Fold:
Amino acid sequence: MYLSNEVKAEIFKQYGGDEKNTGSAEGQIALFTHRINHLTKHLKENRKDFNTERALVRLVGKRRSLLDYLKKKDITRYRAIVKELNLRK
Structure:
């Protein structure tokens, strides 16, 4: 599988502060971004995979709602994660 436990731990360590801190908004946003990039690459090769397309749209919505939550709670953390992950908006 493309997302092993070591990759997840590295993502949470880099963005969440600690590899055990899987509930942090920044860590979850980074994990969603990693998964979104993987699914986008998959869909470029498999244009008619509609189940994956639906999963991608759901992930983007989840990431957007987490970003909105973080923006409402702490604008500096929001700006830092958007800049670090090169997200639009």
Q: What stands out?
A: The two ends are 31 Å apart (CA to CA). The CA atoms of residues 20 and 42 lie 29 Å apart. The longest helix spans residues 50-73. The mean pLDDT is 93.
